[in-house]
Structures are given as C-alpha cells and as structure tokens.
Amino acid sequence: MIVAERKPLSEIRGFVEDYYRLLVVGCGTCATVCLAGGEAEVKVVASGLRISFLQDEKEVEILEDCVTRQCEPEFVEKIQKRVEDEKVEAVVSLGCGVGVNFLAQKLETVPVFPGVNTKFFGAAVEPGVWIEMCAGCGNCILHLTGGVCPIARCSKSILNGPCGGSRDGKCEINPEVDCGWALIVERMKKLGTLDRLAERIPPRDWSTSHAGGPRKVVHVEVASLDDEKGETEP
Amino acid sequence: MSEEPLVVEEQTLCAPCTAACPVHTDTRRLVELIARGDYEDALELLLAANPFSSVCGRICHHPCEQSCRRVKVDAPVGLMRLKRFIVETTRDYRLSRREGARVPQEKQKVAVVGAGPSGLTAAGDLARQGFRVTVFERAETPGGLLGNAIPRYRLPYAVVREDIDDILALGVELRTGVAIGKDMLLEDLMGEGFAAVLVATGLSESRALAIPGIDAHGITLALPFLRTALSPQPPALGRRVVVIGGGNVAIDVARTARRLGVQSVVLVCLESREEMPAWKWEVEEAEEEGVRVMNSWGPRSVFTDEGVVKGLELKRCTAVFDAEGRFRPQFDETDAATVLADNVIIAIGQHGDLTCLAESKVALAGEGRIEWGRETLCTSVEGVFACGEVVTGPGSAVEAVFDGHRAAKTIAHFLETGEPLKQPPMEMPHLGDLPDDVAGKVKVLEPVAADMLSAEERVRDFSEIERAFTEAEALAEARRCLACTTGALADEEKCAACLTCVRICPFGVATIEKTAVMPEEKCQACGLCAAQCPAAAIALKRFGTDEMRGKLREIVTGMKRKGMSVPLVVSYCCLFEMTSRGFIRRAQEDCPQKGIFPVMVPCVARLSVVDLLSPFEVGADGVVVIACSEGSCLYPTAEERLLGRVRQAKGVLGEIGLEEDRIDYWKTQGSAEVSWTAFWELSRKKLERIRKSREGGTK
After folding, report:
1. By the 8 A CB rule, do B485 and B505 touch?
2. Which fold has domain A2-120?
3. Rounded to the nearest 5°, which phi and psi values hold at B609?
4. B133: which strand partners?
5. Exposure b/e, B276-299, CB count within 10 A at least 16 = b
6. A48 — contact with chain B (CB < 8 Å)?
7. Contact call for residues B616 and B556 (beta carbons, < 8 A)
8. DSSP H helices in B211-359
9. Across the interface, which of B496, B619, B648 has its CB nearest the CB of A32?
10. Is the peptide bond before A162 cis (omega within 30 degrees of 0)?
C-alpha cells in the first residue's frame, strides 16, 4: 500500500490563500487505510481550514468529497463534473502523489494542491504503524533475499550486505531502524537457505527503476480497444 | 461524500424487550428518551402504545424486563418503574395535552360493552379515528378489575383514573351503571344506530368450588371479596383466613386479608411452588407479609360447626397437569391435612358473565364462551365483535390492552369496508440473548434498588408499597440499558476494509468480511469505531452528530449575532452523568449570559475529531469535553481513545495558529451539578486570558 501523511494545515492553508471556493477531495483506498486522506480526514482538513479562515474573517466556501480511488478516470469523473458545476477555484487532494497528478491532469485549468506527503510503499506492522517495504524499482529480486527487500529496507540499497554500519541488527543511520541485511540474514537462516548468500548478487540494471525515466505498464488485452483514445498515456 | 447522515436500512430485528411487550412498546427508545431528559416525549411514546401506561407502570407483569438482554450481565433494566417515573413526572403535561385532545367524531357509532382495559383501549383507538364511541359499564365506576378488584396497595384508583380520563378526553362517552342484557339488550344497541358492538366484559366472576360443606357461612368468592374490600365497609373477617388458589388473584386476596387485620392467612394451592401461576415476586412479597403458602394441597371438604366454617380438610396433590399439560389434578387421598379457618376465600379462577348477550343471536361455543374468530374478533352476528379476557381467557392488563387495539382495528376496517380485518398472530423478530462472549465484557451495573416499605409497614393499611424512582434514580437506571439495536452499521460502499474498527472495538465485535461488519446481536453501540473510521463509513443506527452540528451552528451563530461579552464555550457532556434535566436546562438558558452551551452526548467517546473542531467553525472560542466520573464509563478503552482524538483536535488548532488550550478535557467529579459548573468556570477564565493576551499581542 502507498503510505502517506497529512501535511500540516498551515502549509495547506498557504497553498489556497488566493481562493474563495475550495474542494477538499479524499481518496477511499490507500490514503484512507493509512489514515492520511480518507473521508474522515477530509472533514478534519475542511474543518481546520474553515476555522483558520474564520480567524482571519475571510469568507471561503469549502466543499468536501471523497472518491474510491483518485487514480482512475471513472472515479475522478465525478470530481471533474463537480469542479465544473460548482465553480471550484482550487482543489486540495488528500490522495497520494498519484492522485494529485491524476486530478491535475484531468482538471486542466483548476489548480490541485497536495494535502498529504506521499511517503512510501509499506505495510502496517501494527495498528497505526507503517514501515517501508518496497521501493518500486521495477526488477524484483526478493527471491534472492528471503523475501526481504534490500533496495527498500537497506539504507544504502546495497545488493550484497550487510555493510560495516550494521550494529546489533540496527542500521548506523538510526538505532531505531532495522538493518535490512540483518533481517535478510535472519530470515534466510530460518529458511535454511543462508548458504545462498555466499553467491554474489550481480550489479543490477537500474533502468527498470526511475533511472530509466517515467515508467509505463500496458496490458494489451484490456488497453488495445481504447488504444486510439490514448488513455494509457502517462 | 454526502452531508446527510448515513441512511439506516429498515430495522429487521428489534430489541427483545420491545418484542416481548404485548403492545410492542418501544422500551429501548423510551429509556433513551428518559436518559436525554425528554420525559414528555417518553410519555407520548408510552401512550401511543398503551393507553393504560399509568396502570402498567404499577402492575404490569413486565415481560420486557424478563427478556432484557442485561440478564446475561447482571439484572434486567427496571423498565416498569421507569414507566411509572415517566407518568408521575409528566402529570401536568398530561393534563395539558388532554385539552384539545377531543377528535371530531363524524364516523359511525360504536358501542363497547365493558369499561375494562380492553374495551376502553378499543374505545380510545376508535374515537381517535373519528368514530362515535359509547362505553356501557355495569358497575358504577369504570376500569373493570383494575378499578374494582385489584387492591389499592398495588394500584391506587387515581392511577387507573388517569389512564381512563385520557381516553374519555378523546370524546368517548361513558355510561356507567348500565347493564347490557338487563337494562337494555344488545339488539337494542343495534336499533339505536350503533353500527358495531364490541363485547369486552372480561372475566368478572369467580369460579366456585364444588366440595362438601362449601355452602357454609364464612365462605366467599375472591372477586366479591376484593370488591367489598375496596368499599367503605370492608368485609368482617375472623382471626384465621384460608385462601384457596395459587394465582395472582389468590395472592391479592391473601394480602388484602392481612391488611384487614387478619393475623393468620394461609394460602392453599394445588400447584407446587414452581407451578404457581402467580408471579414469583408477588408470592415472595405475600410471604414477607406473613402469608403462609401451602403448596401441593387440594381441598377435600369444609368442616363446619352449626353451618359456620371451621376449617378445611386437605388432600395431597401429586400432579396438577397430565402428560399433555392439561389441568387434571391427581391426589393422594391417604396423605391428608387439616387447616383451621374462620373464613375461606375461593380464588381458583374467573369466568365471564355473558348476561350482556341475553336474548341476542350471538352464538356460544360451549358454556360461558362466545363463539369468536381469533383473527377477526368477529362473533356469529355481523357487526358484533368480542375482545379481551371474555374471549381470550385470563391474562394480564397489557394483554387486554393489546386485544383492545386489535378490536379497534378490525372494527374500523369493518365499518370502512364492510369486511372484518384478519390479524394473525405476529412474532417480532428480535436480537435474542446477548452472546456470552460479549456479555462477559459488558460492565456490571447493579440495578437501582426497588425501595419497598417493610412488610410490617405494608400490612398496616392499603397504602402503596413501592415508591417511585426519584429523577436521579430513573436516570441512573436508564444508564443500564444496553441500547440494543442502536449499534454500528458500516457502509460497504465507503468501507476500505482498513481494519481500524476491528482493532479498536473493545468488545471484539467488528470483523471484516470483504468490508466491515458489526453483528447487531453483539454490537454494544459504544461508537468508538464510528468516531475513528478513516473512511467515515460507520454510523451508529440511532446516533448521528451531523444533526447535532447543525443545531450547534444555529444556536452558536444566533448567539454570536447578539454580541456576547463572554467567551463562548461548547461543552460536550456525558449524558449519563446527568442527575436532573433541570440542571442542564438552566445551564442552557443561562448560556447567553455565561457563555457555556452544554451539549449532552450519550458517551462523549463517540465524538470524532470533527465534532471537537466544529464548534470553532461556527465561532465558539473553546470546547470543553466532560466525560463520566472515574471508573464509571460503560465502555472499555473509551477514555483513552477519546483522549487520542482530543490530542488530534488540539493538534489541528495548533497547526492553524490557535491555542491548543482552547480544548479542555475533564472527568466528572462527584456529580454533574457539583463539578461541571466549576469546570466551565475554569475554562471560561482561561479563554478570557487567551483573549486578553491575543488583544495584547495585536496592539
């Protein structure tokens, strides 16, 4: 899941200073689950902004909405319509960065501001706590490392660790951060496959990652019918 | 995202208390209204279901309590006494609502024979629909057995009269001292233009007993005895009285005899203790008052001296019912006993008096029974209906009321369409017992003790033996309601299956089946999941804060406009700490001067972050949350969760440059009256300081 965190309201307020009719839009999937930008948070942000504008005696209309996913045209359609029909001047998206991008692309002339900081792909290790577990590098090597990702979970993303900065299972950058390679070693011990680490993991091709430029996935079986419309354009 | 509260689907299940009540009084809602201090609405709710609410607040057999789900935790909620509290608290309101209660009566004429609970209920229902109703009553006073037999220590006549006067205020004509079948015939009524006649004459006669010596002087039947006991010249009794019978009437007779000064009262009945048809608590109270109960004995004969009763010969009863459950007592003639008596009172059941049918064509189905359609309430004569105990057999007051409602429905239908209405028996599906796993997690709250006079005081006279709840007691008892059927409901369209509800539910009720599910037979309606749901997908079925926010906006906006010199504080207060509604009402009235606006919430842990922030949106200067006192919250972890949300809300204020101190959290200390005013004062002073320092800062 994409994990995000709401931006401080003071920052959000700064984005929308010049507008009088705002729409705060939440996202019903990842942003909801990570408690950053679901419908409940939309209400909080809208309420906070209202209180803030009231303090300055500025009359600003703040509308609220939430869609199932801000990263799908069908779900975003209703926001497009609402923005147009209700003459919304600016949108604050509580979706992840994808949502902000996607809404911005769809809304064309209406500014979309980010209401959350998008952090990482992670898992809820306990209620209310998420940890980064995937870096989206485009060429998964988890089969080599016992299912623990060295790219995401090692501070240096090194392929043959641990480095000299590993201390009692923790990373030198922060004693609260687990050493990714210590996790890999422990896990492979449990699997009885520790010996595989004797084999060096070769340097990898980073072009599958962001180094290769913005990426694109096409499922021809679904996409082909709409090919002419160019819906798969990034 | 809609601004409207979550739409609640039509309830499929109801609370067991409501299902168990013969007239389906919405007891759950009643208790909620009491807890909120809406006593007048509570009375309206009661009277809509049961015009004999004053009576039933005293003598109902309260099946609602027997089925209360709290029995799995401690003891049922004292619903009957709560009803009594309502009718006693709202007397003035009830009198005022009678004015203008009269309904224009433009429809056909209906005659009701018998002014007991079933006949009068039907009369009231029909009058409310515009029928012209006349009730004929043989006795001089209305009420049937309620008014003319039940001893006053259980049911003062004024209480019966309260209910009856409501019905008469609708425009029902009451003609007492008119015996249909004697003074005028049933057929005459039809001749007088009554389009329908309802026979609701009840079971007015005591059954006699055929044993040797039964005609002796000093032997009476229960109902004549009870009637005389209510008169200015109560019956003279000897030193020793034996009552035959094991039902509630027998108990009434025995306890009445004690109150008439009889030292030795013995109750003899065929049934074993467990089989006695009298309510268990009635038997226990009778024993406390010195009544001796002899179970499993049957009367063999009366022994007399010169025609005067001296005692009873008894034989052991070995079984009351046969294998099919029919009444067929078996005796062991060799096991005998004797009991001395100066008077014997026979209370072995009642039967109807069908004099009113004299010379009519209404067919009988055997001796003393009217041929009658159980579902249509029709007799063999078109336009003549029968309801209540005369056809259903013995029951309780509330059952008679239920039958009265049914009679009104079928008669109205008949008069409007020419056809009677079929009303097959209907069971209301309900939640059932509280599951054990949840019951174990529900906080034990002992019931408010039912204060009763001591047995010595009770037998002195016919004064009422049980006092009513005080307001504080009623509110404390109302807190015990488990609020069945008001639990959480997740909107599957919105639910992201994030598991937050599952993780925070203190009763282990919430689960995810694709989306969140809170099984309603388990949910305790604490609202923690709803307050915390990031998708705003969960709502409590009977509690929304949207409406509250709307009201708040209205009130606060109105106040701001008037210009206030004091800071405006919205105070969310735990509803369950309220000990009098007067206190809250006064506080609300004082708001324009003092700046404190209390909002009562059934558990403040239901408040979401937005609930805490929204008063600021409409211009409040501060928010005070007052939770219940230490250790008294009904819901585990609720306080910690609420504190988390208070911190979140404070954080939001901080982010927009407002003082986090504008939100205060307190726990009630002692009582609401004692501590809340002090908390409000502290918050007010603090907000004044904040205001001053802000003004200083801007200079």
Report:
1. no
2. Rossmann fold (3.40.50)
3. -60, -40
4. B110
5. bebbeebbebbeebbbebebbbbb
6. yes
7. no
8. 222-230, 248-259, 280-288
9. B496
10. yes
- Cβ count near B40 (within 10 Å): 17
The answer, for A43 touching chain B at a CB cutoff of 8 Å, is: yes
Alpha helices in B129-182 (DSSP H): 145-148, 157-169
8 A C-beta contact, residue B361 and residue B381: yes
Secondary structure string (H, E, C) spanning B180-219: ECCCECHHHHHHCCEEEEEECCCCCEECCCCCCCCCCECE
What sign for the dihedral angle of Cα B398, B399, B402, B404?
negative
Q: Which residues pair with B196 in a beta bridge?
A: B110
Q: Which residue of chain B is at minimal alpha-carbon distance from A50?
A: B617
Could you tell me which CATH class the domain B546-698 is placed in? alpha beta
CA distances from B85 to B38, B399, B454, B482 (A): 12, 22, 21, 19
- At B360-381, the pLDDT tens digits run 999 998 877 899 999 999 999 9
CATH (one of 3.20.20.450, 3.30.70.20, 1.10.357.10, 3.10.450.540) for B488-540: 3.30.70.20
B533 → chain A, closest CA residue: A40
Can you tell me the distance from the alpha carbon of B599 to that of B575, in angstroms, rounded to the nearest whole number? 9
- B655 → closest Cβ in A9, A32, A33: A9
CB neighbours (10 Å) of residue B328?
A: 11
B269 torsion bin: left (phi>0), alpha (psi -120 to 50), beta (else) = beta
Tally C-beta pairs within 8 A across A and B: 92
- Counting Cβ atoms within 10 Å, is residue B13 exposed (0-12), middle (13-18) or buried (19+)? middle
Q: What does the pLDDT look like over B109-153, one tens digit per residue?
A: 999 999 999 999 999 999 999 999 999 999 999 999 999 999 999
Q: Which residue has the tokens 């641990």?
A: A162
SS (H, E, C) B489-509: EECCCCCCCCCHHHHHCCCCC
* Closest residue by Cα to residue B272 from B319, B329, B323, B209: B319
> What CATH architecture applies to the domain B16-97+429-478?
Orthogonal Bundle (1.10)
How far apart are the CA of B407 and the nearest CA of chain A, in angstroms? 52
CA distance B432 to B17: 10
Q: Does B103-203+352-417 match B206-349 in CATH topology?
A: yes
Give residue-wise pLDDT tens across range A23-37. Answer: 999 999 999 999 999
For domain B206-349, give the CATH superfamily.
FAD/NAD(P)-binding domain (3.50.50.60)
Contact A28 B494 (CB under 8 A): yes
pLDDT digits 0-9 by tens, B449-472: 878 899 999 999 999 998 899 999
B178 neighbors B137 (Cβ within 8 angstroms): yes
Judge: A39–B534 Cβ closer than 8 Å, yes or no: yes
Q: How far is A61 from chain B (nearest CA, A)?
A: 12
| Spatial CB neighbours of B346, under 8 Å, sequence gap ≥ 6 | B206, B207, B208, B209, B219, B220, B221, B222, B244, B245
A51 and B CB contact within 8 Å: yes
What strands lie across the sheet with A61-67, from one edge to the other?
A: A61-67, A21-27, A90-93, A112-114
Q: Report the C-alpha gap between B33 and B29 in whole angstroms.
A: 6
Mean pLDDT of chain B: 92
Tell me the residue type at B652.
V
Inter-residue long-range contacts of B476-479, CB under 8 Å, 24+ positions, other chains counted = B476/B448, B476/B579, B477/B77, B477/B78, B477/B81, B477/B82, B477/B447, B477/B448, B478/B31, B478/B32, B478/B34, B478/B35, B478/B77, B478/B82, B479/B35, B479/B445, B479/B576, B479/B634
Q: Which chain A residues are within 8 Å of B499, Cβ to Cβ?
A: 124, 127
Pair B385, B198: CB distance under 8 Å: yes
Whole-model pTM over 0.95 = no
ipTM attached to this prediction: 0.91
Which secondary-structure segment (H or E) carries B430?
none
CB contact under 8 A, A40 and B609: yes
